[in-house]
């Protein structure tokens, strides 16, 4: 709180000091020159002005940096979810539950015996289809 009060009263005191230094000059003429302001006041006011500008620029850059980091983090989260489980993206990674009903997107892993049996059935279907196509092609050639 005292910091805010000091910041508010500091420029007022600087202006009062400048006006007090100019009182003799004002009585002679109405012209204003930079030499009439004391050097210490100029230095202090310049330092305050440059500091405020520097703090404003730093705040602006930090704000932009924070927004960029948040955007990149959201992109990274989406990429991670896409690589984790494409069937349930963009939701949270899916962990199958043995006690409850799993969603229809979930395909449970197969036993090696079941995989081998399905591979044999697929091979037999492919052989039957190949034999059917060969006999059909032979009948077309005869006609």
From TrEMBL:
Keywords: Membrane, Transmembrane, Transmembrane helix. The chain crosses the membrane at residues 44-62. The keyword Membrane applies. It comes from the Eukaryota. Residues 120-143 have a biased composition (Basic and acidic residues). Residues 93-143 are annotated as: Disordered. This is Uncharacterized protein.
């Amino acid at each position: 709180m005292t910091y805010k009060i000091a910041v508010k009263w500091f420029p007022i005191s600087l202006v009062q000091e400048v006006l007090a230094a100019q009182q003799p000059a004002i009585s002679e003429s109405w012209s204003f020159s930079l030499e009439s302001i004391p050097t210490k006041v100029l230095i202090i006011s310049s330092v305050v002005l440059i500091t405020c500008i520097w703090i404003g620029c730093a705040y602006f850059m930090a704000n932009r940096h924070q927004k960029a980091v948040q955007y990149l983090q959201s992109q990274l989260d989406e990429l991670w979810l896409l690589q984790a489980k494409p069937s349930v993206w963009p939701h949270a990674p899916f962990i199958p539950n043995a006690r409850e009903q799993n969603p229809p997107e979930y395909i449970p892993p197969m036993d090696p015996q079941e995989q081998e049996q399905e591979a044999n059935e697929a091979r037999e279907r492919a052989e039957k289809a190949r034999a059917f196509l060969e006999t059909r092609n032979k009948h077309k050639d005869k006609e």
